[in-house]
Amino acid sequence: MTDAIATYDSAVDAPRDHHPVYDYDSGPPVDRGKFAIWLFLATEIMFFTGLIGTYLVIRTGAPSWPNPEHRLAIGVTALNTFVLIVSSWTVVRGLQAIEKDDKGGLVKWLGLSILLGSTFVGIQAYEYLELIHAGALPNQDLFWTTFYTMTGFHGLHVIVGVIWLFCIWVGAVRGTYSAHNYLRVELAGLYWHFVDLVWVLLFTLVYLM
Fold it and tell me: 98 near 182, Cβ under 8 Å?
């Protein structure tokens, strides 16, 4: 009887190589911050997909759709689009700088990214003011309703991104980040790249088609 109990105990204590137990307290097998930002971006993708899908349905069902060239300043917005794309590049340069432990480079590139992002918001605000002054109100017709809805929601996302980058920049000025601690910079960069990509799509659909 004693031998049987000893055999049972040894079997219980033996390592289970073929049936590993997942340690739920350790979290997901990826960094928690990255997992959270990708999950958040997934919800944002669904949001903008629904927004763009609704726009396409409305535009396809409309008996006639105005030519954007006759209503919008496409040249100015194209320049503004270039500004936003450049800001995405400067964010990449900032991340590359801190990966090399270049704290000054991070401060410089993030500061430039904030300036470019703020410029984009400023130009869009100026565009809105000019359109409203000319009588192009959101309730005038479906073109203006969809225009203000789509570009407005994106503009809010850009403002959030600028504030986020500014918070990261403050931390960079204080020397918070280093080559071994720059996850927050990377997460903010992922959000910023997403916002830029969405704008390129919106600019193509709303202004060029």
Answer: yes
